[in-house]
Amino acid sequence: MAFTFLQLEAFYWVALLGSFRAAAHQLNLTQPAVSLRVRELERELDTRLFYRSGYRPRLIPRVADILRHTERMLSLADEIGEKGRAE
């Protein structure tokens, strides 16, 4: 499995903000770049992460664990960054 941190970060922000456009703004990326990262993550995990019908993407309930683990990973990455800057 070769998913990337950047793909997970895009997935997290889309899920949290409920919009590919808002996630793109948060990450200082274009909306197509965020969509591509999420599509690549879906391909690597071999599963869909969002329902995309309608105006806003909705998290597929069975992938809530993936979101929870992603949130933990991002939190740990922040802690690592803080520790690195503190020394």
Write the layout of secondary structure elements.
Blueprint: H1 5-17, H2 20-27, H3 31-45, E1 50-51, E2 58-59, H4 64-86
Antiparallel strand pairs: 1-2
Helix pairs in contact: 1-2, 1-3, 1-4, 2-3
Distance between the termini: 33 Å
* Helix-residue proportion: 55-70%
Helix-strand category: mainly alpha
User: So how many helices?
Assistant: 4
Question: Could you give a quick summary of the protein structure above?
Answer:
With 87 residues, the chain is mostly helical. A hairpin with a 6-residue loop joins strand 1 (50-51) and strand 2 (58-59). The protein has helices spanning 5-17, 20-27, 31-45, 64-86; strands at 50-51, 58-59.
Keywords for this structure?
87 residues; mainly alpha; two-stranded antiparallel ribbon; 4 helices; 2 strands; 68% helix
